[in-house]
Design brief:
By secondary structure, this protein is an alpha+beta fold. It has helices at residues 5-14, 28-38, 75-85, 142-148, 166-175, 181-199, 236-239, 249-256, 275-287, 304-315, 334-347, 363-371, 383-397; strands at 22-25, 43-47, 58-59, 69-72, 89-91, 100-101, 105-109, 113-124, 129-135, 153-158, 202-213, 218-220, 224-227, 260-263, 268-272, 294-297, 322-329, 354-360, 377-379. It has 3 domains: 21-109, Dna Ligase, domain 1 (2-Layer Sandwich); 113-239, D-amino Acid Aminotransferase, Chain A, domain 1, CATH 3.30.470; 249-397, 3-Layer(aba) Sandwich (Rossmann fold), CATH 3.40.50.261. α2 (28-38) packs antiparallel against α3 (75-85).
Length: 398
């Protein structure tokens, strides 16, 4: 789960991370009020969407205009810029051409920036440890830094058995070229950020830029936090920060029914049991010249009702021109899948080609249910055969 910048800053602030003063605004009058309370003389008006590159982005109705993060010097300017941003669609390199509508702003006090740094914490699968990443190239996308100047990225892995210690943080601080009181301030901030990461079951914390001010303070000028969905039951306060407007409605609906669903941009819907098999199914669709419309894992213990829901979910995507059901029946019985597919197809009046590949427990019964359904279902003998049939069927129907 992702949250907005201002929400991430509020969480980090509770753990002792220094952040600029600011407030959220949903309307122009609210933006003015926040600015008046901050007192100036410099304000930053920030669009709050779940995407990076906001400052470099452009609004769809004014592509030649300013981006989604603006520095202004009066309450009147805060109001006029808020008017240009609220309710308008911001397009960044992370949103894609469709962009995202800005429904809330964060009005923040200005900051005397002397240096811009980068700090991030994430789980490193290679080492199975929390890894602290830092760079002197703050304000830039870390992917660009990694590609162009990888030597400028510092990495420190923290052993989960012992946790973080002062020397971890000092290694980062000295590696960033900090000195004097800056070192102690950075150590305090890094230790606080790590504690927030662990306590809140975060999957990533990114502070970019982490700035050194003219007075030598270390401040998180921007913040991004993602959380492990599987741990949200332990953090109801964090779960309440979810902004449903920033997420795919279909993905939210899938979560309600225990389905692992991610919408993609292709035209062939996939329903599979098992994440690995789902990935392989998407790969082989591409191999045969098609594009998957989604990742959908119904799980090993799916019921007929869940399968029916999954089928409806796939067909709710207007881009879907064909469906591939690929089931290996271990725990999951093939006849249950077949019953769910038939029930869903009848309920939604199936109008696109459907290819089903079944293998495993009760496979013959499952195939019998499909063949006797009276529905135009194409049966496949193996995964390659299934992919080829669904891709060809979509091309023929086009």
């Amino acid at each position: 789960m992702n949250i907005h910048e201002y929400q991430a800053k509020n969480l980090l602030k509770k753990y002792g991370v220094s952040v600029p003063r600011g407030g959220v605004a949903y309307t122009i009058p609210e933006a003015e009020q926040v600015a008046k309370e901050l007192g100036g003389p410099v304000y930053v008006v920030k669009s709050q969407i779940h995407a990076g590159g906001r400052g470099a982005g452009r609004f769809a109705d004014n592509p030649e205009g300013k981006g989604g993060v603006r520095v202004v010097k009066s309450v009147e300017d805060v109001a006029s810029n808020a008017k240009e941003m609220l309710g308008h669609v911001l397009v960044t390199k992370q949103t894609g051409p469709a962009g995202k509508e800005v429904k809330r702003l964060y009005i923040e006090e200005g900051c005397d920036i002397k240096r811009e740094l980068y700090l991030g914490l994430l789980m490193d699968r290679a080492t199975a440890r929390v890894t602290i990443m830092a760079s002197t190239e703050g304000g830039m996308e870390i992917e660009e830094v990694a590609h162009n100047t990888p030597e400028k990225i510092l990495k420190v892995a923290v052993d989960p058995a012992t946790g973080i210690s002062g020397f971890h943080a000092r290694k980062i601080a000295f590696g960033l070229g900090l000195e004097g009181k800056q070192v102690n301030a950075a150590v305090k901030l890094i230790l606080a950020t790590y504690k927030a990461f662990i306590d809140l079951d975060a999957s990533i914390v990114e502070i970019n830029p982490l700035v050194v001010t003219g007075s030598g303070d270390i401040i998180a000028l921007d913040a991004k936090m993602n959380f492990d969905d599987n741990a949200l039951f332990r953090h109801k306060d964090v779960e309440e920060l979810r902004d449903a407007d920033e997420e795919e409605a279909s993905e939210l609906e899938a979560a309600k029914h225990g389905l692992n669903y991610i919408k993609l941009d292709g035209s062939i819907g996939c329903m599979v049991n098992g994440a690995g098999l789902a990935m392989a199914t998407m790969d082989i669709i591409k191999l045969y010249g098609g594009e998957p419309a989604n990742f959908l894992d119904v799980g090993g213990g799916a019921t007929r009702e869940r399968v029916t829901t999954a089928f409806k979910l796939i067909l709710s995507d207007k881009n879907v021109e064909g469906i591939l059901v690929n089931i290996f029946g271990g725990i999951m019985r093939c006849d249950v899948i077949a019953e769910g597919v038939v029930a869903a197809a009848r309920e939604v009046s199936l109008h696109v080609p459907l290819v089903v590949r079944l293998e495993g427990t009760n496979v013959e019964l499952g195939k019998k249910i499909l063949s006797e359904s009276g529905l135009p279902i194409l049966s496949a003998d193996n995964l390659a055969d299934a992919a080829e049939k669904v891709v060809n069927a979509v091309k023929e129907a086009a």
